[in-house]
Amino acid sequence: MNKISRIFMHIVLCTVLTLTFCLIPCDSSRAATAKEINVSVDVALERFYKQVQGSREFIHAAKGLLVMPNVKKAGFFIGGQYGEGALRVGGKTVAYYNLVSGSYGLTFGAQAMDIIIVFMTDEALKQFRASEGWEAGVDGNVALITVGAGKRIDTTTARDPIVGFVFDVKGLMLDVSLKGAKFTKLDK
Fold this sequence. Notes:
The protein is an alpha/beta fold.
């Protein structure tokens, strides 16, 4: 290995380690409390309602929704994503979850985003709640809808049993995807 290759490998290793420590809480003192998660979920839902026309009616028709506010994603060849949120059924929080995913390849940048996964059928919600670790695209297909200000949604345009929304994206990363994202129930 020549000197340039060693330097490049050192940079990649340092970047991966930095991303790992920034994206995944090392202990429970860094993890959000149930109250903090609920406040963040409320704020994310309000942003969603303001940015997307018809969202209140759409959410009202849902059997349940998983709200993951302020999910962080970063990468430099190897990337990672982490966030914590709440599952709400009937407008009340029934459980807390985290989202973890990793990727490799042409990945550069960092971003933060809000994600809402809407379960439109009782069966889809039941399968999600029964799983030990639910993976998007494996345990359930998510129809991903990227929304911006002024867009409109309703139950006639989104008919899938599980619909995912990514919104309020901030940062410099081109990839907005839930593929491979694993959702695991937290004890809060």
